[in-house]
């Protein structure tokens, strides 16, 4: 049983997450803060609305509905098959998961180079799960712990009930199922937050069943589990999607976050789409959100630029992130270009009208 | 004290506090950045306080408590991290990770109470002032959080708790 001192030590260990002060407020940029006028109210909005409005509002309700993508899934009883060689698009996966009722998809992440991980979280916030697919052929199974042999949907593997060298939501997974779905090619389904003392045989059995149920939901074959409520019209050579995140607490509160590589090494653009309920003040108009600085001088401020636009039922925001907070690397004009050329889905509340990732963002 | 002087002297400690509170570098960065911007706007008032760092720490706490959860960024890790070659260390890390995992799942207000009590070293009365609630409420939050974490309470630890793992003057 941990003690208060263990708690102090654990909290103290989190100091390692402290950001570099330069990343928060670089001294050179800080000197400019006092000279900036925060962009608030109608004046600021109008300043941005004029140049941006035409391009955005013409596409406000989007084009004719694009037919829903065909998500290729295996049958309800998938069999072992040759391993995919790698995804053609970072948001298209070599597998998908039909989660058990208590879990919802929360994120999709390509891992370097070519691996994939899908995160899920419990609806009540008490746990998390993840399914990993390392790069086929790259995992030495001898580094994995051994466990009880299991067969899941015809695929052989084993169940391991011990702390695993696989993180879930930032901490170590206590149990999981490892499946070798093709020679040398593995997929892991791991869980955290399952309740009860596993030394109790009944609890152990229940937790094993819960973990196996996650594994049973894995479907091999190409899938695009994260569709996007917009399509980008600008596709510079440097722009590539790096990862996507979906937060779907309920159909009406879906938030989609896509990270795109920026124009210089280490920089990044983030596109967040969320329903208007989360940002009602931005309805139907472009904005440069205060307190990010004036549109003509925002590059010189230490604060991250953020621009966005409303599309009736949802908002898309573009944020910049650079390793050194040199905002000249990602001019606001470029971020506005992304917004101007963006085509919104016809209906944010109907994911069938959303776009396939391969169609929506550059691979 | 000017804003620049304050930032130069206190920013690292504020960032450490934000990191412990949020448990995430990106969120700590975002929260601190937002707070510093607002603090700068109101520096004429904040700079004249006896302890501006305590005021700013309270701003960080409140910003964290109200931060939109769905915008928290998730940083993917390598699919498989190498196992620790030293079993004892691995075990200790596993226990700490488990504790941090439980801590991460606490309601934010309960987590904030634990951070203020066990990291910043505040008394329950001071935490109550920080969070704008009664000391009894703080004790209730702490009690529930400690029960959730299954923390063994050792009476002799009380003095250490009040002093805190980090000297008060260092822990913003």
Encode the helix/strand succession of chain B as letters: HHHHHHHHH
User: Kindly, what is the distance between the CA atoms of the first and last residues of chain A, rounded to a whole number of angstroms?
Assistant: 48 Å
Beta-strand residue percentage of chain A: 25-35%
Mean pLDDT across the residues of chain A is 68
Continuous helix count of chain A: 7
- The backbone outline of chain A, from C-alpha atoms, is globular
Q: Hey, roughly how much beta strand do the residues of chain B contain? A: under 5%
What is the helical fraction of chain A, as a range of percent?
Answer: 10-25%
Oligomer: heterodimer
Structural class of chain B: mainly alpha
In angstroms, what separates the terminal alpha carbons of chain B? 16 Å
Q: Bin the helical content of chain B.
A: 55-70%
* Rg of chain A (CA only): 23 Å
The spatial strand order of the largest sheet of chain A comes to: 5-6-9-10-4-3-2-13-14-15-18-17-16
Provide the low-confidence segments of chain A as ranges.
26-84, 277-303
Low-confidence stretches of chain B: 69-91, 155-172
Order of helices and strands of chain A: HHHHEEEEEEEEEEHEEEEEEEEHEH
| Approximate shape of chain B | globular
Largest interface: A-B, 72 and 67 residues
Structure description:
The complex is a heterodimer of chains A (363) and B (172). Chain A is α+β, with helices and mostly antiparallel strands and 363 residues long. Helices cover 18% and strands 30% of the residues of chain A. In chain A, the strands form four sheets. In chain A, strands 5-6-9-10-4-3-2-13-14-15-18-17-16 form a 13-stranded antiparallel beta sheet. In chain A, strands 1-11 form a two-stranded antiparallel ribbon. In chain A, a hairpin with a 2-residue loop joins strand 5 (148-152) and strand 6 (155-160). Chain A is globular. The termini of chain A are far apart. The model of chain A is unreliable at 26-84 and 277-303 (pLDDT under 50). With 172 residues, chain B is mainly α. Chain B has nine helices and no strands. In chain B, helix 1 packs antiparallel against helix 2 (25-41), helix 1 (3-22) crosses helix 4 and helix 7 (124-131) crosses helix 8 (135-149). The radius of gyration of chain B is 17 Å and the shape is globular. In chain B, 39% of the residues are buried. Mean pLDDT of chain B is 72; it is low at 69-91 and 155-172.
